[in-house]
Specification:
six-stranded parallel β-sheet, about 425 residues, alpha/beta, single chain, about 50% helix
Length: about 425
């Protein structure tokens, strides 16, 4: 079974990381030393921690502050805050609008007035140079954010237990906090890589071939090729036939800017779970899916007896506990060590998928050197914990029954 996890910025936010673009601008505004107070740019406690880390460590402080103070894009975005919504998609659409206005401007006019803070010399190369610095600053900010600790996790992740990930974020939150050995596509790059400018920020097209070429540095597909961002997991997920395919979208807006991946993943999956944090987010996801698929196709995916898309209310986060620690430990152990842990330790809080790993490993008990007595103890312990598991959206009662039946069949040899 292929279990694909698709991550958007809501995943990082759900784990307490300040990764909204407004958090980044707040960071920049404070470091710029501006005296004017702007309510929405007052730093949150998490942003204050990011600034504290920045001031204590060698991130090239003077260079960064100079770059912030002189960046035309940052000044523009700060002046446009009242006109923007709160997602990175809105941030990128404003970049597109600025480029469109640049195209419309008369080539003979020496200035462009679309930057609200003041005129910009009609120099596309200057726009591009400032944009490159903007990307560098975002990358630096995200690097610092990833130094913040977190002690929150989501039971949905443990219950689902992904074996493939498509990550639209610039972070490695899942790899840092959950597991670091899951095959992952970083669609928009990752901020802690060694490449100079290896994160993707921009838009898809100017809807004109010649203009696209002129503004190529702002286009996502150009940056993805330039930065050699791979889509191996995405292609593998589409190409592997004959296996059941299940996907969870966690914290992703499902906006049409990511239509190619969102549409193909959904149409290639047997079941699609879309986690929603609040009704605003759920309704936005519904509207975006209608935009991608059209009304009729969307309704058939959601409302027919063979529905594919299921909306699931996101649970509250949980402070790291025994269940989380057992999940991570089991994933790091080989078959024999897993079974030794079952034999010798308390595993009453072990997640379902970890118990399933033990069920699979129990087939090799004699080969791994376990005595009949210990083999029986291990399987009885696995069974006793399995029957306590309660089904939910990601753990079906049939899956629990199948796991119990497998153990029962193997126990017959020890009776």
């Amino acid at each position: 079974m292929l279990r694909l996890l698709v991550l958007g910025n809501g995943f990082d936010l759900a784990h307490g990381y300040p990764t909204r673009y407004i958090d980044f601008l707040s960071f920049c505004y404070i470091l710029s030393g501006e005296s004017k107070s702007i309510e929405c740019l007052k730093p949150s406690n998490q942003v204050k921690k990011v600034i504290e880390i920045f001031n204590k460590n060698n991130y090239g402080r003077d260079k960064i502050i100079t770059m912030i103070k002189g960046n035309l894009w940052i000044k523009h975005f700060i002046n446009q805050l009242d006109n923007l919504d709160d997602t990175w998609i809105d941030f990128e659409r404003e970049i597109q609008e600025c480029c469109k206005k640049s195209v419309k401007n008369d080539d003979n006019d020496p200035v462009l007035e679309f930057f609200e803070w003041g005129p910009l010399t009609h120099d596309i190369e200057l726009m591009k140079a400032n944009f490159k610095d903007l990307i560098f600053l975002i990358k630096t900010y995200i690097k610092i954010v990833m130094d913040l600790p977190t002690n929150l996790y989501y039971k949905e992740i443990l219950d689902f237990d992904p074996n493939m990930i498509i990550n639209f974020n610039y972070t490695r939150t899942f790899q840092k906090f959950y597991l670091n050995n899951i095959e992952t596509d970083y669609i928009h790059g990752v901020a802690d890589s060694n490449a100079t400018n290896n994160i993707v920020l921009g838009f898809n097209t100017m809807n004109d071939k010649n203009t696209d070429i002129k503004y190529a540095e702002f286009l996502k597909y150009f940056q993805m090729v330039e930065n050699e961002n791979t889509t191996d997991v995405f292609n593998k997920y589409l190409d592997l036939h004959g296996e059941q395919r299940i996907v969870i979208f966690f914290g992703h807006s499902l906006d049409s800017t990511d239509e190619d991946i969102v549409k193909n993943v959904i149409l290639s999956s047997d079941t699609v779970y879309i986690l929603w944090h609040d009704e605003v987010g759920r309704n936005r996801s519904i509207k975006n899916l209608i935009d991608i698929f059209g009304k009729q196709t969307f309704m058939s995916l959601c409302l027919t007896s063979q529905r594919r898309i299921v909306f699931v209310k996101q649970n509250d986060p949980i402070l790291t506990d025994t269940a989380f620690n057992l999940y991570k430990q089991f994933k790091s152990l080989n078959s024999k060590d897993k079974l030794l842990k079952v034999l010798n330790e308390d595993i009453k809080d072990a997640p379902f998928r970890s118990l399933c790993d033990c069920v699979a490993a129990s087939d090799r008990l004699p080969i791994l050197g376990f005595s009949p007595e210990n083999s029986k103890k291990i399987m009885e312990k696995i069974k006793n914990n399995l029957v306590k598991i309660k089904p939910n959206s990601f753990i079906k009662s049939g899956d629990i029954n199948d796991a119990v039946k497998t153990i029962d069949n193997r126990l017959r040899f020890y009776r």
